[in-house]
Amino acid sequence: MRLSVLAAAISLSVGLSMAADVQAAIKKRTFIPAQGLGPALRAFAKDHKLQIIYVSEEVAKLHTRGVIGDVTSDEALRALLQGTDLEYRYLDERTVTVFSAPETESTSAVDSSEPPHLAQASADASLLLEEVIVTATKRPEAVRRISGSVSALTGSELERVGAQSMADYISRTPGVIFNGSAPGNSSVTIRGISTTTRIDQGQGTTGYFLDDVPLTDPFFAIAIPDIDAFDVNNVSVLRGPQGTLFGSASLGGAINYQTARPDASRWDARVQGSYAGVTGGGSNQSGKVMINAPIVSDQLALRGVYVYRDDAGFIDNVGTGRRDADRVLIRGGRVQALWTPTDRTKVNYLFLNQTLNNDDVGYQEPQTAGRLRKNTVVPEFGEYETTLHNLRVDQEFGFGTLTVSAAHHEKRSDNIEDATGDLQSLLPGVTPITISAPSTSRGKTFEVRLASPTGRSFEYLIGAMRDDTRMNIRNLAGGPGTAAVIEEVFGPLLGEGIGEISAPGDIFLDARIPVRGEERALFGEATYHFNDVWKMTLGGRAFETKVENETLSSGFYTLLTTGALQSAESGTQKENGFTPKISVTWTPGDDFMAYGLASKGFRYGGPNIIVSEPGFTVPRQFDSDSLFNYELGVRSDLFGQRVRLDGTVFYIDWRDIQLRQQTPLRLNYASNAGKAESYGVEGTATWLIARDLLFTTNLTYLNAELVEDFNPGGGQDIVPAGSTLPGASQWQVSSTLTYEMSRLPLAPSFVLSHRYLSEAPGIFGAGAEQGDFSVVDARVALRFNQFSLTAFVNNVTNSHGVTTALDDPLQQYLIRPRTVGVTLDYRL
User: Fold this and answer.
1) For the chain, which ranges sit under pLDDT 50?
2) Contact by Cβ (8 Å): 80, 29
3) Which of 8, 188, 507, 524 is most buried, by CB atoms within 10 Å?
4) Domain range for 712
5) Which H or E element spans position 48?
6) What is the model's pLDDT at position 370?
7) What are the residues facing 294 on neighbouring strands?
8) What is the mean pLDDT of the chain?
9) The domain spanning residue 455 has which CATH number?
């Protein structure tokens, strides 16, 4: 009897072992992004149809870098548990237990059979080369598997270099230039696609998105959102036109912030504070907090973030007598709720609000006021606010995932410009003369899309969107005593009482510009995998846009320009079109990919709503401009993924360019004129030199110029063919060296980074130049328990590089001088 029981037990044990071996040997398409270990294990169990047994407390505070690809259960589990002290074993063919391992050296080698595309370098590396998951294709996808030029900075990378705003990180991406000017309204140029380093008269050439929701205005951006990078999942930069999936305003490319979503499996919190001194300026202070709270375990969670940042000024305004006048205060945050009622349903709500207050726009006037000085009669303040409500539902079906998103986005701005020098000859004795521009932009965006499961020979994504944005732009010009001066100077010519009639309340111009922009589109992409090596993607977007503008102006300035005290001009511009996209991708192995891509981008046109002046005709409207982008790219992993090389060669053909121009009386309008081309090479290299030592660098060569003469305003000044586009620096280099000694007491780490930008014109046909500077930053961090302390020096050499330059008179915006400080960080 005992022998038969023993034989049966042995037979059962051998059978279970063989069944588990068979189960573990089956490869399955797996997509589990970096996240908390608990949710990752549950996703693994669902994908591989297994039961997972583990102690919640053992995994609650652990994270995994995820696993992507066709893998067995064993390969997936090894990848998920890599870097932890946990092990696993099969209890039967469908049940796996995860448990704490005995004390062992955590630097054991990875199984040589592990597929290289599991997003790991080797288990003996503390600085792993992560596989970053982004939504650049409107579905989660590994960034280096996308057939296009997409770069992503993860939250950990942004933290590593101390990045807070776009000025800190956007130029670390190849082919991307940050035209730093007025905080809250500084533009980004991608691959040289821009005709101004300031604000376009119509839509901008770069799109800005938050969790795929557009934050770009259809006409003359009243604000450009610069979301603080604290607790974001990643910031992805899509280079080249993104018209197929992201629509208008992504002519040159797009920037997409991807928030860190709530985690219903664990509590989490983080508090961060910083203090720094600016050479020749004041002091910076910041306080930031994040709380993640599970409300219903594994189903409902809230995540809240709040940011307070006080950035010191360093420009002295000799006219107002204030030192360090350009102080900037950023406040706000977001609240996000994620409800997962079933394994197939996710409901996400996001609320975001961020305000920026700038005491005085910080440019220097070296020719008239001196170095690090400006001279205005009044402070030129700026106030900007961005608000977003977004409700999104993702419902998984067997045939695909349906995503429905509804968003309300709102931006508000107000600023004052000192126009005393420009207009005092018209109004002698009036001081100060100011122009203010209180404006709002409110819109609703709806999008629905269906994405097929990945890992099949035929994959698709189809969708529809609608955006309806209403803007109210206002310009008010005036100054104390304006009515009296007008009465005295112009009364004998225009009649008694003209002062009070044309400048009530001393306001001599009151212009209201209501704008309504609508965009409707059907879009889609389809990918066919011919085999494991070749695939082709075809995509397109059928769109319809409409812009309605009106200008209602009154006052003395209106009388001078139109001959009447009141003027009303309106216009409508409609367009429809199609933006195609095609790519072919060759992947001969897991460590190499090459692709060819052709794509088209577009942006809104619009009506011109100012009247023609004597001898000068203003076109009634300006059309949408578009461009074609052609590129070849490669992605390569070498030496067991210790070295990653990415390279792209591109050519852009840009026609019917929208150009902001001025009438003889300096009223703004836009027209289409000329052609331009942009071509270049972008390269990125990442080298995991040793366990603790990581080096990353990128290099860009860019040639962006006019290919035919341009005659702005029809006057004598001709911008000749061959002129470089504004802000299009020919060379750009960015490098970062990171040394993290995690095995030593206090786990010290060092980060040294360098950025270089070559010279470029600030505007067409003028001598204002920007660029031609280097910036070096250094950081040292220590960690003890849940605290970390970081000392940093930004702009070590105290460079005064020019980020944006304007002429007449020369105005230069500068990078922040040397800044020395400390950051204290606590994680629950």
Assistant:
1) 1-24, 103-126
2) no
3) 188
4) 253-827
5) helix 37-48
6) 94
7) 301
8) 87
9) 2.40.170.20
pLDDT of amino acid 274: 97
Cβ within 8 Å of residue 7, ≥6 positions away: none
Give whole-number Cα distances, 423 to 167, 427, 478, 611, in Å: 34, 6, 10, 21
Domains of the chain: total: 2
Strands 773-784 and 811-814 turn out to be: unpaired
The answer to whether the CB of 801 falls within 8 A of the CB of 177 is no
DSSP state at residue 619: P
Alpha helices in 470-570 (DSSP H): 482-494, 498-502, 556-562
Q: Quick one: angle between helices 37-48 and 73-81, nearest 10? A: 180
Residue 312 phi, psi dihedral angles, 5° rounding = -70, 155
DSSP 3-state assignment of 689?
strand
The last residue of one of the domains, among 91, 118, 145, is 118
Task: Give the closest residue to 590 by CA, choosing from 36, 120, 267, 225.
Answer: 120
CA distances to 79, 116, 123, 492, 691 from 112, in Å: 13, 9, 11, 94, 18
DSSP 692: T
The pair of structure tokens assigned to 197 is: 């380093």
Determine the pLDDT at residue 816: 95
**Domain for residue 410, yes or no?**
yes
| Cα–Cα dist 703/696, whole Å | 24
Distance CA 316, CA 160 (A): 32
Closest C-alpha to 213, from 167, 176, 254: 254
Which residue has tokens 């307070």?
Answer: 308
Question: What CA–CA distance (Å, rounded) separates 261 from 336?
Answer: 7
Kind of pairing between the strands at 35-36 and 63-64? antiparallel
**Tokens coding 693:** 């030592």
pLDDT for the residue 438: 95
Residue 261: name the closest of 323, 190, 334 by CA.
Answer: 334
**Cβ atoms 520, 514 nearer than 8 A:** no
Residue 696 domain flag: yes
Q: E strands of 244-344, at which residues?
A: 253-259, 268-278, 283-296, 300-311, 316-317, 328-342
* Contacts of range 565-572, beta carbons closer than 8 Å, 24 or more positions apart: 565/501, 565/502, 567/611, 569/609, 569/610, 569/611, 570/607, 570/609, 571/606, 571/607, 571/608, 571/609, 571/620, 571/621, 572/546, 572/547, 572/548, 572/607
CATH of the domain at 112: 3.55.50.30
Say which amino acid occupies 109. Answer: A
CB crowding 210-230: b at 16 or more within 10 Å, else e: bbbbbbbbbbbbbbbbbbbbb
For residue 614, count other CB atoms closer than 10 A to its CB: 7
Q: Half-sphere exposure (CA, 13 Å, Cβ side) for 691?
A: 13
The values of phi and psi at residue 46, to 5°, are -65, -45
Dist. CA 384–CA 65, nearest whole Å: 37
Task: Please state, in angstroms and rounded to a whole number, the distance separating the CA atoms of residues 657 and 195.
Answer: 8
Helices 2-25 and 73-81, interaxial angle, to 10°?
Answer: 80
Q: If DSSP states are collapsed to H, E and C, what string results for 15-36?
A: HHHHHHHHHHHCCEEEEECCEE
The amino acid occupying position 708 is E
**Residue type present at position 766:** A
Structure tokens at 97: 């237990």
User: Hey, what's the torsion of the CAs at 96, 101, 105, 110, to 10 degrees?
Assistant: 0
3-class secondary structure for 164-233?
Answer: CCHHHHHHHCCCEEEECCCCCCCEEEECCCCCCCCCCCCCCCEEEEECCEECCCCCCCCCCCCCCCCCEE
| Paired strand residues for 413 | 384, 439
Query: Across the chain, which distance is largest between two alpha carbons, in Å?
Result: 127
Distance of alpha carbon 246 from alpha carbon 136, whole angstroms: 9
**pLDDT per residue over 202-232, tens digit each?**
888 999 999 999 998 988 888 898 999 999 9
432 token code pair: 């100060």
Q: Does 333 map to a domain?
A: yes
The residue out of 118, 136, 167 marking a domain boundary is: 118
